[in-house]
């Protein structure tokens, strides 16, 4: 097994590299890196290239049996189609021509089905894609469609894992903060104004998001370790051939339950934040039935690990800059949530 990994320097890519010792058949990972690189080891080799250039992808794909495609671009119209769409197209074209190719795994996102922007209730893999406004979101829907088409057109062994917001370390703690170090979205200042957000930060308030109906919002999350486990379940698994799976926590996170637990165990006071979002559920029953996969993280474990995680001070500011850049904040763009 020789795996081409795109997006190796991101959250999922780094965790996948850490789990390489658990790969079947003593697998080797070739990390396709552009601006940033990963450390080479006995099982990890680095290929410096550009996903948007066909010749670069052709060279990177030499001898590859499996592809795990993580690379993406956030809300950046100048690059998103080149990276997310053209890059995927070049990869799939090489898979069609390759005699060694065995499997293509795409890590997609629930942005393709509208996330919490539409009132969809429970979302199944068979439900129509409904991207909300934005080029990043459009790319997520196009990725799923393209992969499905190559499975139909050429019989490629493809598998798509559709995931919501991916958590690790203290991500969730900072997602629930009103201060300047807030991680991810929605941005509280956009919902309640900058002054009120600063006031809530000083008072140690914890946001209790309400949906459009005024009830506590329910939103889907996944811990990165549960996603890595899901990836391990689809390696050369006949049950994954040509399939799309929702991969998320066992039920969406209820903001009322989460804030009550945070306040009772870690302090602060909850404050209701009205939104126009809708509570939705990514139904993961198919992954349980076909793959035997179930998530290990529930609300309490997600909260506890986030609120007890201790950061390395030397990497603190480096991490903030990296997060801001990944979300499009460094150049002034807003998060696509």
Please name the defining characteristics of this protein.
single chain, 337 residues, alpha/beta, Rossmann fold, UDP-galactose 4-epimerase, domain 1, seven-stranded parallel beta sheet, two-stranded parallel ribbon, 12 helices, 37% helix, globular, disordered C terminus
Overall shape: globular
Structural class: alpha/beta
Straight-line distance between termini: 35 Å
- Named CATH architecture of the largest domain: 3-Layer(aba) Sandwich
Number of helices: 12
**Count the strands?**
15
CATH class of the largest domain: Alpha Beta
If you average the pLDDT, what whole number results?
A: 91
SSE pattern, N- to C-terminal? EHEEHEHEEHEEHHHEEEHEEHEEHHH
Question: What portion of the residues fall into strands of 2 or more residues?
Answer: 15-25%
Task: Count structural domains.
Answer: 2
Oligomer: single chain
CATH topology of the largest domain: Rossmann fold
- Rg measurement, Å: 20 Å
- Helix proportion of residues, in percent? 25-40%
Largest sheet: 7 strands, parallel
- The CATH homologous superfamily of the largest domain corresponds to NAD(P)-binding Rossmann-like Domain
* Unreliable runs: 329-337
- Provide the spatial order of strands within the biggest beta sheet: 3-2-1-4-5-7-12
